[in-house]
Design goal:
- There is one protein chain.
- The radius of gyration is 21 Å and the shape is globular.
- The protein has helices spanning 17-21, 38-51, 109-114, 116-151, 159-170, 199-204, 219-232, 268-271, 277-283, 298-329, 335-350, and strands spanning 2-3, 6-9, 12-15, 26-31, 57-60, 68-73, 78-82, 98-102, 182-185, 188-191, 194-197, 208-214, 237-241, 249-254, 259-265, 288-292.
- The protein has 2 domains: 2-106 and 334-350, no CATH class; 129-305, no CATH class.
- 43% of the residues lie in helices and 22% in strands.
- It is built from 11 helices and 16 strands.
- The strands form 4 sheets. It has a 6-stranded mixed sheet, covered by helices on one side. A 6-stranded mixed sheet has the order 9-13-14-15-12-16. A two-stranded antiparallel sheet has the order 2-3.
């Protein structure tokens, strides 16, 4: 399984890291700067246990989807996570449940200090770029709210369709006497590469996708109701947060059935201006399950699109600055030491 535990949203950076930590008995919190080998260490640990036949969940970074925020091995109750800003994590039961892995033990501080002024200047520029991105996303959120408010009086038209959707989903749910588990995460993220979706990877693994065209009116509440029904029936479910408004829901995934019910944004998914090509290629072969549109939403959607495009440009700038900072940290690192620390984690989890 691949997810985004955090996202760049209208509320700034937002994460469901608490859900990632839930149920884990062994947590390794990686502390270190840019380019210090956090993602590489997580990949090595994850690959080791995947090669041994364990299921491994890969949790991607919304700042750079090619990097990782965390790797979890559910069968071992283990999590290895990037615990630096903006998703700073601190141990609650240090030495018992969590362990801090300080990658700062493997850098040459003198070499970093020699470049202190440049590094700090680049870091401030990176922070400013993120601030500008979140300002643009906040404006996108305002446009989204205006659209939802304007269309709300017509929302009653959707009730029969939503009722039919619910009945169809419930026919596919088999009650269980076992306690249900649910979690929250993102399958779609607003990134330096545009809007990136992990849906194609899920489809490639055999999941059935049910796409809904929606202007956001009523859909989030509908998903929350389905999640409630799943809890009542003991059915595991993953609530998928909306990438722009993280307290609303983009969809729900039922892992036992391998069914994904997800909203396809009405305008942007058609134009393809913001979405990664892998998603668009996948969606070309997927029929629409339900159309929950009300009226022409072009003015609002155009405003949302423009603000998200502006945010993506700022996120790209932030990523470029991050990569430049890495050029100062990477030469100062003892990566043999970092690799050996990764092997120590593997040995601890293997026992």
């Amino acid at each position: 399984m691949r997810t985004f535990p955090g996202n760049n949203t209208a509320q700034g950076f937002f994460s469901y890291y608490d859900d990632l930590l839930a149920g884990k008995q062994r947590i390794f919190l990686l502390k270190g700067g840019p380019g210090t080998g956090k993602s590489s260490l997580m990949r090595r640990v994850g690959a080791h246990f995947q090669d041994k036949g364990y299921g491994v969940d890969w949790h991607h970074c919304s700042g750079d989807p090619l990097s990782l925020d965390a790797v979890s091995i559910p069968a071992l109750g283990a999590l290895i996570a990037d615990a630096t800003m903006p998703h700073a994590l601190e141990p609650r039961s240090p030495g018992i449940r969590e362990e801090i892995v300080a990658l700062g033990n493997y850098w040459d501080r003198k070499q970093l200090v020699r470049n202190q002024t440049t590094i700090q200047h680049l870091d401030q520029q990176r922070r400013n770029a993120y601030k500008d991105a979140y300002t643009a996303l906040k404006q996108a959120g305002v446009a989204r709210a205006a659209m939802a408010e304007a269309l709300q009086p017509q929302a009653y038209q959707l009730l029969p369709k939503l009722r039919a959707c619910k009945e169809e989903i419930m026919t596919q749910i088999t009650s269980s006497a076992l306690p249900s588990t649910s979690s929250r995460c993102f399958f779609t993220a607003i990134t330096c590469m545009g809007i990136v979706s992990l849906v194609p990877l899920l489809v490639a693994q055999g999941a059935q996708i049910y796409m809904v065209i929606s202007q956001y009116v009523g859909w989030s509440e509908f998903i929350a109701h389905i999640a409630y029904e799943c809890r009542l029936h003991g059915v595991p479910a993953m609530l998928l947060a909306d990438p722009l408004e993280p307290h609303q829901w983009e969809g729900i995934y039922l892992p036992q059935q391998q069914h994904l019910y997800i909203q396809q944004p009405y305008s942007t998914a058609v134009t393809g201006q913001l979405y990664d090509k892998q998603l668009l290629t996948t969606l070309q072969h997927q029929p629409f399950w339900a159309d929950l549109t009300l009226q022409d939403d072009t003015p609002w959607q155009r405003s949302i699109d423009l603000h998200i495009q502006e945010a993506q440009q700022h996120l790209h700038t932030a990523r470029t600055l991050h990569q430049e900072i890495e050029t100062y940290y990477t030469p100062a690192m003892d990566f043999d030491g970092v690799a050996e620390r990764g092997q120590t984690i593997i040995r601890e989890l293997d026992t």
